[in-house]
Amino acid sequence: MSHLKGIEHVLPEDIEKRSFEIIGEELKERGITLPKEEEMITKRVIHTSADFDYAQTMKYSENAVAIAKALLAEGADIVTDTNMALSGINKTVLGEFGGTAHCFMADKEVAALAKERHTTRAAVSMEKAAQIKKPVIFVVGNAPTALIQLYEMMQESDWRPAFIIGVPVGFVNVEAAKELILKSDVPYIVNAGRKGGSNVAAAICNALLYELRKGR
Length: 216
Prior knowledge:
Structural class: alpha/beta
CATH class: Alpha Beta
Shape: globular
Largest sheet: 6 strands, mixed
Strand content: 5-15%
Number of domains: 1
Distance between the termini: 38 Å
Helix content: 40-55%
Order of helices and strands: HHHEHEHHEHHEHEHEH
């Protein structure tokens, strides 16, 4: 394959490493220096999406990466709003630290309650997740209604999620829902604007887990 014009011969095990090198080079060309703590998280999102806009739009609360890593190190669970994000999260590494990943979107009770209340399953699944008796990192990659529900639950009581990763994608209520989390008092990683998705949500979780395992 190496004789084909424009094709770089890279061994399979080196492809990801080379991808991150290219991302680093392109960021440098653009004059972008990412904060050290956030660098590998944002780079993995760019790696997943091939979209350099994330270098500008990813928002981190103060000490967000350190807080998220500490929660995962102590065995926090992850709850996602899509089975796609759930399937993308490295559950083996999460399990090494005592955490479990959940998605309640297919839960029969959640579906029935959502129908009864004329709301989304994503919103009801956040309520179910809030009943987990340990710290939970809420990971939203698709449904802005999940972020809105979390915000309303925080307004109505003294309950707080341990951490929110808010990267839903789309056009309806997406930016407004993210803004609610940006102004909340909960530690967060949020991508401002319309972009995001389940793949981005999983990439953020995996970046945190890989950094945590590397630091062992």
